[in-house]
């Protein structure tokens, strides 16, 4: 049974900013506070972390719950983006709302025990699938609110201008509670036309935008500059995110820096999806295969808000995954050759504090006034969480425990505890 205490006293915690110092924190009514009220003081539960590391809840900024866990229904050969879209299109013919709900729930269960407390999920809308995915994820949003704050981004995976009826579905979903409008220009008959139309709709509905963008390794025909231009033209500064943007990996540093400064000035954020981007891109190269990841470290220095995310779990876009954001941060660090403590801390920020900035979350953190969404790790410091892919020991949402991982026991010959 989950802890339902309204007040909590946390003792002997180590924070990422003070790894050698043990601190005490207080939680009341779901928030960190400087002092408990007299009534809360009397009934508060206690949690002695014995020097373990306490971090704010991890944040998944880009995932697809509606098409997760369908790999067994697909037949992969080429391993390309085109094949993934086509295989998913075929699989969607058999989707039902309950099927989507159950598969999405299985991913959320995994994400919870990996320390995720916030998530933006993209949901495909088109005349074939209708609102089935949206309706299923809306149910998940309500049923899992005790552990994860779920934000829904609806988008046209299979085109919009070339797919009559899709815009009407997007509008319907926005009017029924979808918070973000997404785009996938590279699947449309008019990529730039889709981008412009989505900006017009974002102004109309006063919502944020999140694009799947520039998903190949050719520097030609990059649409990122147009997104930057429209962000300023339509007054959406700080409310636009681009995902993938693997074309950036094909550009020399000076061009990346120039684009990074433009992105920062316009308030365009970026999400890298390392598991997907590594799996789908660069297949035409047998030797000297490119890594093909957006250069977040360079963009971060330019002032761009960056994040790392899972994108997909067990489907044609990403056949892998356990919903561990720490594993994604480690993968990105490894492939991008980031290893110093400072670099690993930035990778951690891209699944926590910087992701919170990208999602425009209020009251995120570990100080009084912040929502008490936090995760506990047994690690020497915050950088080691990424370096060692440390699993979280327990997590809390609004001060209530959502999971606990039992301690691992090693049985040596001397212990005498081995089974016969």
Describe the structure.
This protein has 420 residues and is of the alpha/beta class. The chain contains 14 helices and 16 strands. The protein has helices at 38-43, 81-92, 97-113, 132-143, 166-175, 191-205, 224-233, 253-266, 274-280, 296-301, 325-336, 341-349, 353-358, 382-387; strands at 7-15, 18-28, 31-33, 45-48, 53-56, 58-63, 116-124, 149-155, 180-183, 208-213, 240-244, 268-272, 306-308, 374-377, 394-397, 400-404. An 8-stranded parallel β-sheet has the order 6-7-8-9-10-11-12-13. A 4-stranded mixed β-sheet has the order 3-2-1-4. A hairpin with a 2-residue loop joins β1 (7-15) and β2. α3 packs parallel to α4 (132-143) and α7 packs parallel to α8 (253-266). The longest helix has 17 residues, at 97-113. The radius of gyration is 22 Å and the shape is globular. The relative contact order is 0.15. The model has no long low-confidence stretch (mean pLDDT 95).
């Amino acid at each position: 049974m989950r802890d339902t205490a309204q007040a909590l006293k946390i003792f002997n915690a180590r924070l990422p900013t003070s790894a050698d110092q043990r601190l005490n924190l207080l939680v009341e009514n779901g928030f960190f506070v400087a002092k408990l009220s007299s009534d809360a003081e009397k009934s508060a539960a206690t949690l002695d972390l014995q020097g373990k590391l306490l971090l704010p809840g991890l944040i998944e900024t880009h995932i697809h719950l509606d098409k997760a866990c369908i790999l067994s229904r697909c037949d992969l050969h080429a391993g390309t983006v085109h094949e993934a879209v086509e295989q998913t299109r075929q699989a969607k013919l058999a989707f039902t709302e309950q099927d989507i709900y159950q598969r999405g729930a299985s991913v959320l269960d995994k994400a919870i025990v990996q320390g995720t407390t916030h998530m933006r999920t993209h949901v495909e809308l088109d005349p074939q699938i209708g609102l089935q995915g949206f309706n299923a994820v809306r149910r998940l949003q309500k049923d899992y609110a005790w552990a994860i704050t779920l934000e829904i981004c609806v988008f046209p995976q299979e085109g919009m201008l070339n797919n009559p009826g899709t815009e009407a579905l997007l509008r319907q979903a926005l009017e029924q509670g979808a918070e973000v409008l997404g785009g996938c220009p590279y699947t449309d008959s008019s990529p730039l036309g889709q981008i412009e139309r989505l900006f017009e709709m974002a102004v109309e509905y006063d919502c944020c935008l999140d694009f799947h963008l520039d998903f190949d390794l050719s520097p030609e025909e990059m649409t990122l500059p147009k997104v930057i231009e429209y962000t300023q033209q339509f007054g959406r500064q700080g409310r636009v995110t681009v995902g993938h943007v693997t074309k950036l990996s094909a550009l020399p540093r000076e061009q990346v820096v120039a684009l990074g400064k433009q992105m920062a000035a316009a308030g365009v954020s970026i999400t890298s999806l390392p598991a997907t981007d590594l799996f789908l891109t660069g297949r035409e190269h047998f030797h000297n295969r490119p890594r093909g990841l957006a250069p977040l470290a360079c963009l971060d220095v330019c002032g761009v808000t960056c994040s790392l995310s899972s994108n997909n779990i067990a489907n044609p876009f990403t056949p892998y995954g356990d919903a561990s954001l720490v594993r994604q941060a480690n993968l990105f660090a490894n492939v991008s050759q980031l290893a110093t403590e400072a670099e690993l801390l930035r990778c951690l920020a891209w699944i926590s504090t910087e992701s919170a900035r990208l999602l425009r979350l209020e009251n995120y953190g570990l100080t009084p006034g912040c929502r008490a969404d936090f995760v506990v790790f047994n690690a020497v410091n915050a950088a080691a969480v990424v370096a060692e892919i440390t699993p979280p020991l327990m997590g809390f949402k609004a001060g209530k425990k959502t999971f606990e991982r039992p301690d691992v026991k090693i049985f040596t010959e001397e212990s005498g505890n081995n089974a016969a």
